[in-house]
Amino acid sequence: MEFDRETLREAMSISTSANHEEPSLFEPIGNTAERLAQGDQQGQHTNQSDEEGEEDVALPEGVDSIESLCMNCGKNGSTRMLLTSIPFFREVIVVSFRCPHCHHSNNSIQSAGQIQTRGSIYTVKNVHRPIDLNRQVIKSEHGQIKIKELELEIPKGTGKMTTIEGLIRDIIDDLSLNQPARKHLDPLVYAKIEELLERLTAILEFRSPPVTVELEDITGNSFIEAIDGLNDPHWSKREFNRTTEQNAELGLVPQAEETAQGLTDDYEGEDPEEVYSFPSTCGSCGHTLNTRMKKIEIPHFKEIILMSTNCGSCGYKDNEVKSAAAISPLGTKLILKVTDKEDLARDILKSETAELTIPEIDLHLNPGTLGGRFTTLEGLLKQVFEELDQKVFARGDSAAGQPASQNPPESGDSEEAQNYSKTTMEIFLDKFKKIIEADTPFTVILDDPISNSFIQNIYAPDDDPAIEKIEYERSFDQNEELGLNDIKTENY
């Protein structure tokens, strides 16, 4: 069952503008569970009931029931809905259907928030421990699950809230459904599916080598839990711009929209001071727009290209930096020792291939995070903080919690595990604020395998005692990820 997003957003805005003592439309799921448990104990129920002669079943406050058609038997059943918010994620609608006639039941989860400006890809590597299988998973109806080692891809379908273990068990149940019939009708397909079922079962029983689970969602409304906050070496999130076809699939643009292509002005040579413009597509709404581009030379470094996008249809804005230089034969690691607030004013160029690390707070950003940025060190840190505070960590249940133990608990569903995550995030953000204000010395490490990142040397052309530069040869895996191993410019 689908719900009108504009109606939900209007209800959310009304709830926000109301008296602060009134409950939010999307109550955090932890508070909801606690309130429902107290209601069960105290016998506080509403007077709603199931239809078709079923005995009265009182529903707790906040749970709505709607009569709906059963697609299994054609009679009317009951759909129950709960509006809630998931910690470290966003608002969702939990939907449960049950038919009293044929006893068919199912449940799903739908995003109640807006479609994000970019799609997202969550990746969890080395899944082989109980705590990995207990990672919480929010899969929207547009989410696609991939297990790379098994070459297994689960297409888009019903949204659900589960764990990685729950996803694998659902796959096993779906594949096992018609196996007895396949054994006689198509023995070859039966044998292949049996082999796949054995490998999936081995993952659950920890008899399998580590696997990689990937969740891709063009709406950006799916999620896989990170253990121990950002200090999770096996978890990563990457965002991407949707294609025109994907925007059309989501109904953001018409299917047959005509787009204007090509440049109208004749090329008359390159002017270093000229701002160029070329047609492109908005990554948020899919409409055509003009992206402006200007080449700039950074003193004592290289040339870069500044690109600016401003969509007149939806108001989406984006700025990014691209390198205009060739790929260097060596990679570069830049290490800056920040000792006072003057260091925060240094210009910094972080290319899209660079890793950013601050060891003092266990911050590590993978290549591609935030894209390319040319700003000051203070500006870059504030951008990182805003991205983490607004997109990765939602408010709600994460606002409270007791100090956590040093080692994360094995079970992701336990109260101890939830408290551990809450306090980890709070402590991390508090440390990050002190870093931004330079209240304590810290180290910034930019590791760029193609040497297109830069930290301003305030003593140029002399050496800067606060900056250490280390050049190194790229590994085979780094060259493979950059697509350099297959490039041949000689003897081909």
Provide an overview of this structure.
The protein is α+β, with helices and mostly antiparallel strands and 492 residues long. The protein has four domains: 107 residues, N-terminal domain of TfIIb, CATH 2.20.25; 122 residues, ZPR1, A/B domain (Jelly Rolls, Sandwich); 48 residues, ZPR1, zinc finger domain (N-terminal domain of TfIIb); 152 residues, Sandwich (Jelly Rolls). It is 24% helix and 29% strand. It is built from ten helices and 25 strands. The strands form six sheets. Strands 1, 2, 3, 4 and 5 form a five-stranded mixed β-sheet that branches. The N terminus is likely disordered. One of its GO terms (cellular component) is nucleus. This is Zinc finger ZPR1-type domain-containing protein. Acts as a protein folding chaperone for elongation factor 1-alpha. Keywords: Metal-binding, Nucleus, Repeat, Zinc, Zinc-finger.
